[in-house]
Design brief:
four-stranded antiparallel sheet, two-stranded antiparallel ribbon
């Protein structure tokens, strides 16, 4: 009986300690991620954009664009700072789900939308060659960072726009200041540690405080065999879409 009382007293004393109280607030399996849910999100499926914030029209070129709430708040701060310096930042594209990306991809795949003046269905009958041509500037469905709500396209979709005049001032401001607000350019010019992936996109910026985690998750949970449901999907494994494109970003944005 005495032993039981002493055990009870010891238990009560330990339960009152700061360490024990802290342990009570540690969530169980805090780092556990369901692989299927992760894959669904990373590949832009099942309406994941519903969790994102709608971008106000004063920040965007069209209505209805959406963005991760944290990325959106950071962009608004960056937008205000740029405005003070005489720079106007306009979001041209933000979150794009699997279906939206599929539409872009298949229009190019079928020739409904020309690429560099070519109907690729005629000029590039070999599927892998055709896919690689589209991948110079457009993501394969399921592989786009735009699925994550963390990435935005700003002001123009033309690199030449950012090489002179007003566009150069905008790009130079972003290079000098975007990191202050958490943004990074994932698709810089090839070289300097980035030898695979999409061509340079001076308009494309990612919100690193959130997208870093998703990049890591993509390396853990995505594999080339998961890609399907669109024309040309059979090329994903030959191209090594995850290694060369999903993860083919500037090391500074990892």
């Amino acid at each position: 009986m005495l032993t039981q009382k002493l055990l009870l007293i010891s238990t009560l004393i330990f339960a009152a300690t700061p360490q024990a109280q802290a342990d009570q607030h540690i969530p169980q399996a805090a780092n556990t991620i369901d692989p299927n849910s992760a894959i669904t999100f990373l590949m832009g499926k099942a309406g994941v954009e519903d969790r994102f914030a709608t971008i106000a029209s004063r920040y965007a070129s069209r209505k209805g664009l959406k963005l991760d709430p944290k990325a959106y708040e950071a962009f608004k701060q960056m937008h205000a700072a740029a405005k003070k310096d005489g720079i106007k930042l306009v979001i041209k594209s933000a979150t794009r789900n699997f279906g939206y990306q599929k539409g872009i991809w298949e229009r190019k795949w079928t020739g409904a939308r020309k690429v560099d003046g070519q109907n690729l269905s005629r000029s590039m009958p070999d599927p892998t060659t055709r896919a690689l041509k589209i991948l110079e500037n457009s993501s394969m469905p399921g592989s786009s960072r735009h699925h994550w709500g963390t990435d935005i396209d700003l002001n123009s979709f033309n690199n030449n726009y950012f090489r002179s005049g007003k566009g150069k001032r905008e790009y130079d401001w972003l290079v000098a200041n975007a990191a202050t607000f958490g943004f990074c350019q994932p698709y810089t010019a090839k070289g300097n540690g980035r030898n695979t992936g999409y061509n340079e996109e001076r308009w494309h910026w990612t919100y690193m405080p959130v997208s870093q985690r998703y990049t890591n998750d993509a390396g853990m949970y995505l594999n080339d065999a998961l890609f399907g449901g669109f024309q040309g999907a059979e090329t994903a494994q030959q191209i090594k879409i995850v290694e060369n494109y999903v993860l083919g970003i500037d090391p500074a944005c990892r």
